[in-house]
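dumping the sequnces here before i forget
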Amino acid sequence: MRKRLVPVLLGLAGLGALFAYTQGQKPLDPFEEAMRQRQMYLETFGVLPGELFVEEGKELFHRKGPSGKTLEACDFGKGPGVLEGVYAILPRYFPDSRKVEDLESRVYTCMQTVQGYKPGEIKREEVQAITTYIASFSSKAKIQVVPKHPEELAMYNLGRELWYTRAGSRDMSCAVCHDQYAGQRVRLSPVRSPKQGLGNEWPAYRFEADKLYTMEDRINFCYESIGIHPPAFYSEPHIALTVYMLAEATKAGKTFEELPFFTR
Amino acid sequence: MKRSAVLAIGLLLLGLGFSQLSPFKARLQAAIQSGGPEFAQVMLGQDKAQALCTQYRDKLPPELIPAFLEEQKALIKYPQNGKLMGDWKNGEKVFTDPRRGNCYACHQGVADEVAHGTMGPSLLNYGARGQSEAVVRYTYEKIYNAWAFVPCSLMYRGGVHGLFTPEETADLVAFLLDPESPINRR
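..and the predicted 3d for all of it:
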């Protein structure tokens, strides 16, 4: 029922944005525009689209898998059943999987090892929704990604190397835009550096795309934009880049936005 | 005799050592490969220039710059008919197309396009530079291969990578320099 409202709402929002866009002489401020759209959702429907994903994620989190267990039996970094603030300390090393995992790959792992799903049975949309639900317990939390374990340090170093890797037909790297040109815009999208808190707004609902993006989705969108086929979900490039970005954001004392965020 | 044998073995081992990937490089390759074959193909398929920019974090040591620029200059190809100014109308299409020039991602162009990036300099009224041979040639070569001027710049090498042909590069030059082009109309 609630979900049906979204297309209608988007139609309205889209028209509004188009009007503002065609009438505006000056480039729109993307943040202001997003906040205006967000307000419109709240006033018209009393709910933000991101909250629908949280609700869906909550149901899936408490759904029993083939093993008869729910995701309450999964340790997300502060012990099984604890969700408060876990998103702020991820990615981190998990002794049971012997891997550094971000929230998304941790959900993917636990759905297999704790709940007994086969990889082919795990839908990407379900992982997105569950990730959004868990991340909502870290809304406005201080980011605390400090690599200490050797595997975490290795991931940080790999992430930094990937960050600077120039490749593809556009000759791009993350750094060439996000470090050297932080504060500027690509089209209308603002470009921030990790030290400015890059990555602190995902999972977020992007009204422009009418989709919920997790951090991994956003990294893939970036790679696609620079002509590089994006890495597979839950793979090491995602984990490494996320460790690098959030460790830098941690050093700069950044906090998460309201999660799930609402953005352009 | 004995000493030279030890030396030879030492050199052999050293050579073997250099021919192997460093542990970090090997680990990086494995991480990239875990992202899937299509991702790995691009990331591990860096050309020499991209690898240098990566290694030096986009700040090449001064002693490497002359050879770098020379190699990049040599990659520039020119239109068959020798004309470096083509058709501005087609140039506008290539300029705007996200899959081709995608120039608005970074540059301001035609005044009424407000959704433009700000990472590159504004190209509004670029034609004020005139159409001297030097201006036309510089504009052509910069668009075709930006790294022939500024090593490891954000501006990518569109011509080198075949995102547009030499003829289309000339069309882009016309879009920037032709007085009839909307970039130069107030």
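Chain B has a mean pLDDT of 93.
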